[in-house]
Structure prediction request, 357 residues.
Amino acid sequence: MTGQAVPAVSAPPDPGAGPPAEGRTRERPLALRLLARPEVGVFLGAVAVFVFFLIAAPSLRQGGSMATVLYQASTIGIMALPVALLMIGGEFDLSAGVAVVTSALTAAMLSYQLTLNVWTGVVVALVVSVGVGAFNGWVLVKTGLPSFLVTLGTFLILQGVNLAVTKTVTGNVATDDISSMDGFEQARALFASSFDVGGVQVKITVVWWLVFAALATWVLLRTKYGNWIFAVGGNRESARAVGVPVTFTKITLFMLVGFGAWFVGMHQLFSFNTVQSGEGVGQELIYIAAAVIGGCLLTGGHGSAIGPVFGAFMFGMVQQGIVYAGWNPDWFKAFLGVMLLGAVLINLWVQRTATRR
Prediction:
């Protein structure tokens, strides 16, 4: 028996339905659209790390232990936020780690050596930190040199100045104790105090971290300046062609990193009353890694402010989780390397998925 093809009968089109979506206009599944968000991947990773260490280190389930994790994450996260904005803008700053120490040293030595109110040192340190950021941005836009070279030079300059000036002024590698000086308690309350939550002492930096994250998210998603950041990170020349103030945006992004360095520097100063001039080396890589794990691309034009929050939380969880689990702390760097490499591979996959037709 020979079969005969029967012509297909098409159902009449639904008058309420729109035109068929094909090619680039076809809507992707919800899962792919969610994965295209830069912060979703790191959020899932943070949840996995959190659950893992809750199982491996039961002592982390205590409120005090979790407060320690949040504190550790906040000191990284406050700096990771402006570093992330800078990376979305297509640049990165290798001097961010030593700039934190430069800020703290400036405030400490100026206040102590000249017997001034510590707030004077705090304000001058802010000017110096923002000035260092402005210098980095100005050299970058005027010379066209890569930010790697510009900020590497600043890193070496600040590292040498931190050590040389501190030894010259104090005769030591650390600053003098400023805890007895006028204004210290007020400054400590702002930058390094703690407050009680259900019998657990929580550092004020956790609150500042979340406030800065909310502010950065609002800037990126709700302001013209946020659009400029994405534009200059995506394609500088195209952004300039449509009227984006590229020079202003680049310089102010470096100045924001300077502001973050100042804030973290003040926290360190008023937490420990003194500062070691050789500290800060290597921290810049931690800040950059937290931003990358949070979904920011080294090529710029992609990322969020929420992603680095989860990235910093993962750092704090791993760093403290290893200790609470009783493992060799030397494994910390290995964990960070695995997280960074995994984040880069995930980000690459997400970028290709988001741009696939």
